[in-house]
Write a structure and sequence with these properties.
- The chain is mainly β.
- The chain has one helix and seven strands.
- It has a seven-stranded antiparallel β-sheet, with helices on one face.
Length: 117
């Protein structure tokens, strides 16, 4: 992925209002030249979306797929969450199935806004 300043957006979806971005958060992260040499999985789950392990997720030819194994988080017992998405040198998109029922997702998108050397 390209070193630089990345805009990261994160929100929840609701199947009753698919175009609505619930609790959207926007932030900027800096990916330096050393960090940009890491694997895509390490960059996304280490620099941009922290707190989950990509152990069961594959990153191949621009496609992200697999699942997250999550421990119990009240009120949810231990659970698995399907993950899908895509990536390129200047962007990525993740959809994580939430344990709230069918059609509830957490969406995380990143895009390079300014490259650095």
């Amino acid at each position: 992925m390209t070193p630089g300043y990345w805009e990261i957006r994160c929100w929840l979806t609701n199947p009753q209002a698919p175009d609505m971005r619930i609790s959207e958060q926007v932030g900027t992260e800096r990916l330096d030249a050393v960090g940009a040499t890491f694997s895509v999985s390490r960059i996304i789950f280490g620099e941009f979306y922290r707190g989950s392990s990509p152990e069961h997720i594959t990153f191949k030819n621009g496609v992200i797929e697999g699942h997250l194994e999550e421990g119990a988080i009240a009120p949810f017992p231990k659970h698995s969450q399907n993950v899908s998405g895509s990536y390129a040198k200047d962007s990525f998109s993740l959809k994580i199935q939430m344990p709230l029922g069918e059609g509830f997702f957490q969406v995380i998108e990143g895009r390079l806004v300014k490259a650095i050397d």
